[in-house]
Amino acid sequence: MRIICGSSSRAVRSIASLLVASILAAPGPRPPVASPARDASAVAGTFVQYQPWMMKLDREAWRLELDAMREAGITLVIVQWLEFQNVRFIPADRSAPDPTEIILDYADEHGMRVFVGLSHADLWWSRIKDPGYLDRASAKSVAVTNEAWRRYGRHASFAGWYLPQEIRDATYPLQYTLRIRTFYKKLGDCCRALSGDKPVAIAPAMSGTASPEKFGRMYAALLPGSGIDILMLQDGVGARGWETDFERRIVPYFRAIRDACRASRVALWSDVEIFRRCPDGANSEPAGVERIRRQIDAAAPFVEGFVMFDFFHYMSPRRGEAQKKLFEDYLREIVRSGSAPR
């Protein structure tokens, strides 16, 4: 799981173009899934990972962030979570700034879409052997889902749900894979009971610790009947420090998971990690635009669209000089050049 820590934007662990130009209905009984179309922009979605200090940003500060996102071609915002480690990001005080409400208001006005994330705890995957833990975790997320819908469901831009429990690519025994599938289905059913056909998305991680074949088999077992509509595979490039030869590392995994997604009628997107490790191996900083271009090119043959992790911390021109440089390079080299995945 990728977590940004503190003002230094430290990446502790590995936590679309292209916004919707068409709506494609998946075969069978699945609801229609908004599928990013490849246009002149490279990435049309971004995660926003709330941290406590971000709750102090007012409406004007968020407007400036969202204006910059739109300039970079972002039309989909994925709020990663509304609760993390028992820290809530839904203000109890109605007079306090509510970033999710602010983002949705802005998205309503500008024709953007927002996916809303639920409740999460770190290291959740290490506890899946305990069925009681998954029951408790799902109960917390169900409570957040109901609260989120009551509070934000009126917004036209509320377009989907994000389940923040990210799976690692170390393969699980079948019994645990099926437990995760049941967990996802319970949450997805709750989301749909409230909002109808709004899609449910996940973003699993990839590190190369399992073979592509095992990786594909795990998802072939996980996805059927899971209620997942969109799978946004983290490409792992930033979190794993793959600055060179990463195409060879990631292509077999995108190919394997594409086949599993097709079999279960799940839309596959790429989650492009736009950061890189600093020399100290702990902190992270914005990546270069050429590396990001190569990440997009490597995944493009296998996916329907792209999102990034994440604009706010690594590409916002308001976060620092390195972020401002990436923002300007990205506008020049990708957005304004009309460059699409090669």
Structure characterization notes:
By secondary structure, this protein is an alpha/beta fold. The chain has one domain: TIM Barrel. The chain is built from 9 helices and 17 strands. The two termini are 29 Å apart. Mean pLDDT is 87; it is low at 5-32 and 37-41.
Summarize it:
The chain is α/β, with parallel strands linked by helices and 342 residues long. The protein has helices spanning 59-71, 99-110, 131-152, 174-195, 212-222, 246-264, 289-299, 311-314, 321-335; strands at 2-5, 10-14, 20-24, 33-36, 45-48, 76-79, 83-84, 87-88, 113-117, 119-120, 158-162, 200-202, 230-234, 267-273, 275-277, 284-286, 305-309.
Characteristic terms for this protein:
single chain; 342 residues; alpha/beta; TIM Barrel; eight-stranded parallel β-sheet; 9 helices; 20% strand; globular
Question: Layout of helices and strands, plus pairs?
Answer:
Layout: E1 2-5, E2 10-14, E3 20-24, E4 33-36, E5 45-48, H1 59-71, E6 76-79, E7 83-84, E8 87-88, H2 99-110, E9 113-117, E10 119-120, H3 131-152, E11 158-162, H4 174-195, E12 200-202, H5 212-222, E13 230-234, H6 246-264, E14 267-273, E15 275-277, E16 284-286, H7 289-299, E17 305-309, H8 311-314, H9 321-335
Parallel strand pairs: 5-6, 6-9, 7-10, 9-11, 11-12, 12-13, 13-14, 14-17
Antiparallel strand pairs: 1-2, 3-4, 7-8, 15-16
